[in-house]
Automatic annotation (TrEMBL):
GO MF entries: cysteine-type endopeptidase activity
Domain Peptidase C14 caspase: start-end pairs: 5-305
Family the UniProt entry places it in: Belongs to the peptidase C14B family.
GO-annotated cellular components: cytoplasm
Domain of life: Eukaryota
Name recorded for this polypeptide: Peptidase C14 caspase domain-containing protein
InterPro entries: Metacaspase, Pept_C14_caspase
GO biological process: proteolysis
């Protein structure tokens, strides 16, 4: 079993000082109340999970009675040098395959690292954690510094890292000391770069390069962009989007950060041998925040960077299937996917029970539910088996999609390979509600979207609605005893592909007007091995929009290319320009008719 190492950082107290003042006068930051408690509660969570006490380090700054300095001794304060020292110590002591957990609670701001180019698409490169002594002239801990250190752990030492940042990382707000009452106090701090900031950049990069050199892997950092945005062997969870405010408030009688409180509450609900994946944890935390604090004027949406499919405080990799949160309500199940995500009446969803997660990392199907009503962003389903006690920790994953209106597959050609073949095929297609196999005459009320050409020997052929052969499909032979199953799989995927390609058939379809959304692809004409570049911008009228980008590939599968991982959509703000997406192009042979593998969506 791998060891778990943790560094927990929380700062309630901040020194006053003039080093970052515009006019040379002493300035102060509002002290906080819940950050040290965040650390203590996280410490208790780790100990209850079996983490060795000697493997957990804490750096905290508690406000003393006289309010002049922290209660703790200086070597226990949240400062740049103390955090650097603790992380270096963990890196030296941990063995490859061990797990590292870093938690920070406190103020956060937006600061440019000295050597790193800043772009709007890089929300973490300018993120800075406010150390307790920054107003005395000591450095911030920037996303650039933290990224270099965690990268050394994750990539070179092969340590599995989780980073939790319960702070703002926007340039407009500190972590809020009130109950979600915004206070714009960053105007008191000068944006000047001090010598201590420059030295911190040099030390962080030097330590990283020295670490690589000691393992014979040294190379220069030619592109010091924020590794935290797309980390390898690591997961980053931040308290909010870069334009939101992270809050702390009194919850259940104690003062805590909203992210930390809800994160620990969710983890307490898991008592099985494994904990949830980071994505599962994030979904539950978001929902708790939305349900408990959604009525408040200031909201926060925790975000995840990196691999969300790895177990929290573990190494188990969970399955990659897209899952949706559920809420039991009045004997039915509310699933958080709707018509905009392709949900339809008649779809069957597997309900995954976290308490039955197998040691292989794959979640067992505990129940199934059939969709009975669809709204734009949610649907209501009925349990097919009422013997299960389903609660809000369960997840829903699509098992069989449905078609509304019906999608007709017409049978043409020779006699089927044996009597009863079409009945067998119909039985296999029956699970896809609305997908009909039609062997009668066609008319205006029964128009085929696909044709199945049957045969007594040789391969079956599938034709499009103009009766042209569909290329690049796996071959199914008439004498194959599994022919009905294989044809049902291929036909259902092809029908879904064509139905989704025609977006106007979706119940909630609404085309973005050109003055509200811009999608640009370059170049317009591509050759083999060229790179397709995709950029997009949302123009309003609302402040934000949630988007997903899919590619309909040449092998009849549907690939999600943005966002990566298990997140169903990513949020962009109006007029914000996201990072450009690049795709390498492969052009298959148009005449290739026999593909060995089945159709796959990714």
């Amino acid at each position: 079993m791998p060891d778990i190492w943790a560094l927990l950082v929380g700062s309630n107290f901040y020194f006053t000082g003039s080093a970052r003042s515009r006019n040379g006068q002493n300035i102060s930051l509002n002290n906080l109340s819940g950050c040290v408690r965040d650390v203590d509660c996280t410490f208790n969570m780790l100990r209850n999970r079996g983490v060795k006490e000697q493997n957990i380090s804490k750096l905290t700054a508690s406000t003393s009675e006289n309010g002049e300095r922290p209660i703790e001794p200086p070597d226990c304060w949240p400062t740049f040098k103390n955090i650097q020292r603790k992380l270096v110590d963990i890196t030296k002591r941990a063995q490859p395959g061990d797990i590292v957990y870093f938690h920070y609670s406190g103020h956060g701001v937006q600061r440019k690292a000295v050597q790193v180019p800043q772009t709007d698409a890089d929300p973490l490169v300018g993120m800075a954690l406010v150390m307790t002594d920054v107003l005395e002239g000591e450095p911030f801990l920037t996303g650039y510094h933290l990224g270099l250190w965690i990268r050394g752990m994750a990539e070179d030492r092969n340590l599995r890292c989780t980073v939790i940042l319960d702070s703002c990382h926007s340039g407009e707000a500190f972590r809020n000391a009130g109950d979600f009452v915004p206070r714009d106090i960053t105007a008191t701090i000068s944006s000047m770069i001090l010598q201590s900031d420059k030295q911190a950049d040099r030390e962080a990069e030097s330590a990283y390069l020295e670490h690589l050199s000691s393992h014979n892997t040294r190379n220069s950092i030619k592109d010091p962009r924020p590794w935290l945005l797309n980390p390898k062997n690591a997961t980053i969870i931040t308290a909010c989007d870069k334009h939101e405010t992270a809050g702390e408030r009194t919850i259940d009688g104690i003062r805590q950060g909203v992210l930390t409180h809800n994160l620990l509450h969710v983890l307490r609900d898991f008592d099985g041998p494994l904990w949830p994946s980071h994505s599962h944890l994030l979904h539950d935390v978001r929902r708790r925040i939305r349900n408990i604090h959604g009525h408040e004027r200031t909201t926060q949406t925790p975000l995840l960077y990196g691999d969300g499919n790895i177990e929290v405080l573990g190494t188990t990799a969970f399955h990659q299937s897209e899952v949706a949160a559920i809420t039991p309500r009045d004997g039915k199940i509310l699933i958080e996917v709707g018509a905009c995500q392709g949900a339809a009446v008649g779809s069957i969803y597997d309900l995954l029970c976290p308490a039955k997660i197998g040691l292989s990392g794959h979640q067992d199907v505990g129940a199934q539910a059939r969709v009975e009503k669809v709204d734009s962003f949610s649907c209501t389903a009925r349990l097919l088996d009422n013997s299960h006690e389903v609660d809000a920790t369960w997840r829903a994953a699509l098992r069989y999609w449905a078609f509304h209106p019906d999608f007709i597959i017409a049978v043409v050609g020779d006699e089927p390979p044996y009597p009863g073949f079409l009945d067998n095929l119909r039985e296999k297609l029956r699970v896809y509600e609305g997908l009909r196999l039609w062997d009668g005459p066609l008319d205006s009320d029964n128009q085929a979207g696909l044709f199945l050409e049957t045969t007594r020997k040789g391969p079956f052929r599938i034709l499009d609605k103009e009766r042209n052969p569909v290329a690049r499909l796996p071959s199914v032979q008439a004498d194959d005893t599994m022919a009905p199953e294989k044809l049902a799989y291929t036909l259902s995927h092809l029908a879904r592909y064509h139905r989704l390609l025609d977006l106007s058939s979706m119940p909630a379809f609404q085309q973005f007007r050109s003055d509200r959304f811009i999608l640009d692809t370059k170049p317009q004409t591509l050759r083999e091995s060229e790179t397709l570049k995709i950029s997009y911008k949302y123009l309003g009228p609302s402040d934000t929009a949630w988007i997903s980008i899919f590619c309909f590939n040449a092998s009849w599968g549907i690939d999600k290319i943005e966002p990566e991982g298990t997140e169903p959509a990513c949020r962009i703000r109006a007029l914000e320009v996201p990072e450009q997406i690049e795709m390498d192009v492969y052009v298959p042979n148009a005449a290739e008719n026999d593909v060995s593998g089945p159709i796959e969506d990714r």
